[in-house]
Design goal:
two-stranded antiparallel sheet; about 425 residues; disordered C terminus; 17 helices; mainly alpha
């Protein structure tokens, strides 16, 4: 990876793109530290001093901007939610399905719908946070101040969406993913500082830190291998004559990733499991809070085991669900049949659909177990060791996935540049 960045830096065009990307991420981090007006910072610190459930996940994606209630407190979460909704609508509604099949024009319309939906979701979330969760932290609760805060939060999300699209256009990598990546990476120094403080105070031994580093390196290696793992389905295209030209006759493959669903299943699973804990945040000292803390919280007993088992089951379930949404064996088989393609040894049509479904099911099981392990290990470490690394699995998957995708895009651009003179 470092070798790829070094080579890209010596190419003038790619160096400008890399610098532009870095500058945009710096703008994002600066905005993440600008608080909205009329906020009591001391009260905010008290609000997020304990376990806040699902709110910790929001704070993860915002790089700490959520807990500090800055202008980027909503981060890019409304855009991610809108993108997932639009993607799911392609399965449920024929109109969105047609847009997905219309090529570039269809993608432009879906992108426009996603932008509008992002603004609407951002406005709804900003209103809920201002009037609900953060209301007590607002010093001046006049209607004008409330409207200003809601407008600032909505504008912050819209600006981040625009920033991500500019990175896509003039920079390197996926802009939205890089913004989330920057928010997660920005929390690493504070985590390291916290561990160093524990070591200096004698709460954690140096040997335990070394063991944690070794485990982290091994888990990172496994995650990289699984993220890069692909099952290649061979496809042969029959020869056909059109006019005086012959087409087909070549061999290719369908790449089916082991982790086709990415980090989405873990996010869905954590969202469901953390929802009861989030409710207890608003209703402290009640019977419901005591029940959730004991039986559904990773800090409870036997709650930690119930939480871990439910996390594994839900992660595997959402792996199958989201993979089924993003990969349609019937559509793939029909496209192959229309273009004269077939899997060697498998008849076109329903037999190909069954074969692809069987392969996808096996890959989903392996990918689901992998995601469940990555999602559960940080919880176990946080409970049975002095280290607090909540949502570590989600962070690791996002960081590694974005880094691999960015490096791959750099390699592709360098490859195109090398072939440019040959093609001329």
């Amino acid at each position: 990876m470092l070798k790829t960045f070094s080579k890209a830096w010596h190419i003038d065009e790619l160096r400008k793109k890399m610098i532009f990307t870095l500058l945009m991420l710096v703008v994002y981090r600066i905005g993440s530290n600008i608080p909205v007006p009329s906020i009591n910072r001391e009260y905010l610190a008290q609000m997020f001093s304990g376990d806040t459930g699902l709110l910790d996940l929001f704070d993860l994606f915002s790089g700490g901007a959520f807990s500090n209630f800055t202008i980027f407190a909503l981060s890019i979460t409304p855009y991610v939610t809108a993108s997932i909704i639009v993607q799911l609508l392609t399965v449920a509604f024929p109109y969105f399905e047609r847009l997905a099949k219309e090529g570039n024009e269809g993608r432009k319309k879906m992108a426009l719908i996603t932008r509008y939906m992002t603004v609407v979701l951002g406005l709804i979330q900003a209103t809920g946070l201002t009037i609900g969760l953060f209301r007590r932290a607002i010093v001046d609760q006049s209607p004008f101040t409330m409207i200003v805060i809601i407008a600032v939060l909505t504008a912050g999300t819209t600006f981040l969406m625009w920033l991500g699209e500019k990175i896509n256009e003039f920079g390197v990598g996926n802009g939205i993913s890089l913004i989330i990546f920057a928010g997660i990476v920005a929390r690493i120094p504070s985590t390291v500082r916290g561990i160093a403080t524990q070591v200096s105070e004698g709460a954690v031994s140096a040997v335990a830190v070394v063991v944690l580093i070794i485990v982290a390196v091994l888990v990172t290696m496994v995650v990289i291998e699984m993220q890069q793992g692909v099952r290649k389905i061979p496809v042969q295209y029959a020869k056909r004559v059109v006019g005086r030209k012959m087409y087909g006759g070549q061999s290719t493959h369908i790449p089916m990733k082991v982790n086709q669903a990415g980090v989405i299943p873990i996010i869905f699973s954590l969202s469901l499991l953390q929802f009861p804990l989030t409710i207890t945040y608003f209703f402290p000292n009640t019977g419901f809070t005591d029940f959730v803390t004991k039986y559904l919280s990773p800090s409870g007993n036997p709650g930690v085991w119930v939480y871990a088992i439910l996390n594994i089951v839900l992660t595997i379930f959402f792996t199958y669900f989201y993979t089924a949404v993003t990969f349609n064996p019937v559509e793939v088989a029909n496209q192959m049949k229309q273009n004269g393609g077939f899997v060697p040894g498998i008849r076109p049509g329903q037999a190909t659909v069954d074969y692809l479904s069987r392969i996808m099911s096996r890959l989903c099981f392996a990918g689901g177990l992998f995601l469940a392990a990555v999602a559960t290990i940080p919880t176990i470490i946080s409970v049975f060791t002095p280290f607090n690394i909540a949502f570590g699995g989600t962070s690791l998957l996002i960081v590694i996935g974005v880094a691999l995708d960015t490096v791959q895009q750099l390699e592709n651009q360098m490859l195109m540049r090398n072939y440019q003179g040959f093609l001329k």
